[in-house]
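Consider the following assembly input.
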Amino acid sequence: MSLFRNVIVFASLLPSFVFASTQGTLGTTTTGTVSISITIPALVQVTGLSDLTIASASSFPVTANTTACIYSNVASPLGSYFVTASSTNASTTNFRVKDSGTNYITYAAYWNNAAAATQTTTLASGTKTAQQTGGSSTSLTCGGSPNANFNINLTAAAVEGVPAATYSDVVTIIISPT
Amino acid sequence: MKKIKRHHCILIVILYFITLDRTQAANPSSTTVSVIIPALVQISGLSDISLTPTSFASPATGATTACIYTNVLTPLGSYYVTASSLNASSTTFRATNGTSFITYNAYWNATSSPSQTISLSSGVKTAQQSGGSSSSLTCSGTPNANFNISLGSAQVEGFAAATYTDTVTLLISPS
């Protein structure tokens, strides 16, 4: 009996939103209420990426970059996110391009949480970075101004001994709130 | 003298019974009962609505069915709806996390399906709806109306991850 009484007391203390909707009664007018709950989860988006092309690498090191727009509504800190870049031709965590045969060239990849092509954060293929800041929390298009940069670097040592050919890779960039 | 008094008493008793009989005869044998039933309405069967948009690609939606009883004659089963958002700005439905307000769209449908048939403005009475039950306060267990909301990507954009709440009051009236 004591347990039953405790349950009743506990139920009466529950927040009103638990049983928020109310029903009307018969009358000349009638009123019911509906509780609305909208949970916006942490949402992220990456846009504005371009392909990177090194037309003819004759002087090293050579670099290429693409800016990006990162939208993030993560609250703490606002606009923060994590990056995981993965090379299709990776060898463990090394980014690699590949020719039509079996030749590979290793290259370095970097992330910068601003539009400049700075080698700020060294990326390891398939490995999530530390938390980045600087994403737009207000505009899916970043108000037209990129706020991040993905860039690569190819050294002379990396191309030593590889045959002349066209090498390519696809890098998947995952932006996550955590 | 005693005889006169006795006669008076007998006369009074006779007159009493005659009067009593006439009174009973004057009472009506039936009574007219008049009951005026006004236009009556009732809304029931409402549930809370929770929605979680997980993508910018398509709007998030949520709905609750309802049972509308109405004895309005012209047309039978008709009614009006006035939906009011607790956090409204003018006629715009809004939910809040305490600091920010997110706008959402609200709709009424005069059947149980969550169709966006009538676009609602907070605090504004709709046109006359039909389809209410005129025979059962419980709609015989089958909902006959739907209140539903939607949240588009443009409405989510720029809002921090959080839970936003609102309370919508649905007023059903016969006119």
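The longest helix of chain A spans residues 2-13. Ask yourself how this observation constrains the way the partners meet.
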